[in-house]
Specification:
- The protein is globular.
- The protein has 203 residues and is of the alpha+beta class.
- It contains five helices and 14 strands.
């Protein structure tokens, strides 16, 4: 999603982001009441703006396909309204698409701690962060097996898969490819992920 940094959840939560630390519990409580979504990084909150038509369409296409595929499996698919909690670094992010197959997540109503798959649709304002620091943060999730980046300007999907040695191996898919997500044994054409996406439109 597109982030607008240095925007507070409410005046009661932040008067000065440089000095005020917000406890995770307070963030979660305020976030439930906030009309705007915020991500949380070690005591600081960052407001999120809306996404482009292409961004939303790609996310919905993938989430819908995953939902149909995983129905009855015990795995759950979430879109951008569900938080991923990276406990080791005190972070809450809103992935564009997330899958968890871990029974422990069923007890967590407003965030998930044990995803096996996380997907981010790239935007100009967030691509560097999604590829860099955010990916580094996500790697500390012990259950995460795949991290996927989807380009919204052209048909290109990058899948980073954690192998048996714990190394992240990149698989790239372009127009005409069949995409394979090993974490959930899922296959789909890349064309289906970009259905109804009009390239060249102004975001």
């Amino acid at each position: 999603m597109i982030k607008l940094y240095n925007t507070s959840i409410s005046e009661t939560m932040i008067a000065n982001q440089n000095t005020n630390y917000i406890p995770p519990k307070k963030y979660l409580t305020e976030e439930e009441l906030s009309p705007v979504k915020h991500e949380y990084i070690d005591g600081q909150v960052y407001a999120m703006a809306g996404a482009s038509d292409a961004h939303v369409t790609i996310s919905l296409n993938l989430a819908s396909a995953l939902r149909n595929y995983l129905r009855g499996s015990g795995c759950r698919v979430y879109m951008s309204d569900m938080k991923a909690h990276i406990e080791t670094t005190n972070i809450f992010f809103y992935p564009d698409v997330m899958v968890t197959c871990d029974a422990r997540d069923k007890a967590l109503p407003n965030h998930k701690k044990y995803p096996c798959l996380i997907v981010e649709v790239l935007s100009e304002s967030t691509e560097a962060f999604d590829r860099g620091d955010k990916f580094a943060y996500y790697q500390s999730l012990a259950t995460l097996q795949e991290y996927v980046l989807i380009n919204q300007k052209r048909q290109r999907l990058e899948c980073f898969c954690r192998n048996a040695e714990g190394l992240w191996v990149l698989h790239t898919y372009t127009q005409g490819s069949e995409v394979y997500l090993a974490s959930i044994d899922f296959r789909t054409s890349i064309d289906s992920l970009y259905e109804d996406v009009a390239f060249g439109e102004t975001p």
